[in-house]
Amino acid sequence: MNENHDVSSLFSIHGKVALVTGGSRGIGLMIARGYVEAGATVYITSRTAEVCEAVAGELSAVGRCISLPSDLSTMAGVEHLVREISDREERLHILVNNAGAAWGEPIETFPEKGFDKITDLNLKSLFFLTRDLLPMLEKAATAEDPARVINIGSIDGLRVPIVPNFSYAAAKAAVHQLTRMLAVHLGGRNITVNAVAPGFFPSKMTRHLLENYRETFEKACPLGRIGEPADMAGIAVFLASRAASYINGAIIPVDGGHSLKTEA
């Protein structure tokens, strides 16, 4: 039995290799920045090469961050990313499946492409990227400190949102269930799989909602505010550290208690 309870190392991810998809903005950037500042080598992806390179350059001022531009909305993009990181690293300790998109539209006009685009990126690509990176994750995994897959779900996958984002909410609920399934199937390989279900954080995806409904969301949250970068970095670093080695298959709301409320 491992009796090493030194807290200074228990929460450390120093020296680990992480891949954060959609890591150039929003929640992905919050996580990537937290990992870089905590001493991990961090690879980030984005569909836009210029943005990805610029953000990686900014984060490299405080640690090691490498840009791997990829369009994960297609299987070709998933395969490209797997090749790129496999060429650079033998092991992958942390995979954060954050890349995603949203689509909101009344049910009467909700288009087929609004389902295909969201489910392909938010759910399908997440599964196949995880599958194809299993060899790298297994090489990094030990019983004492498993490799980590951290999926970014949403409180919209926990309760019915007030906005008509049908495909997004359904895909995020599916991400939560897929997380549980992967946790069971991969636990024996010393790979844990957990999901974070964020509430409202400042990002490009939530900009319109926060510009119009921020006060509503803040009032609906028991803590009376939206999320801050440190809130997301904190849970992401914790889940990637040895402190979370025995957490597997959890869906963790990071929303100040918002998803517990029945209104808004």
Q: Any overview of this molecule?
A:
The structure is a single chain. Helix 2 (26-37) crosses helix 9 (229-240), helix 4 (75-88) runs parallel beside helix 5 and helix 5 packs parallel to helix 7. Strands 3-2-1-4-5-6-7 form a seven-stranded parallel beta sheet, sandwiched between helices. It has one domain: Rossmann fold. The chain has nine helices and seven strands; from the N terminus they run H-E-H-E-H-E-H-E-H-H-E-H-E-H-H-E. Strand 5, helix 7 and strand 6 (191-198) form a beta-alpha-beta unit. With 264 residues, it is α/β, with parallel strands linked by helices. It has helices at residues 7-10, 26-37, 49-59, 75-88, 112-132, 134-140, 166-186, 207-220, 229-240; strands spanning 17-20, 41-44, 64-67, 94-97, 147-152, 191-198, 251-254.
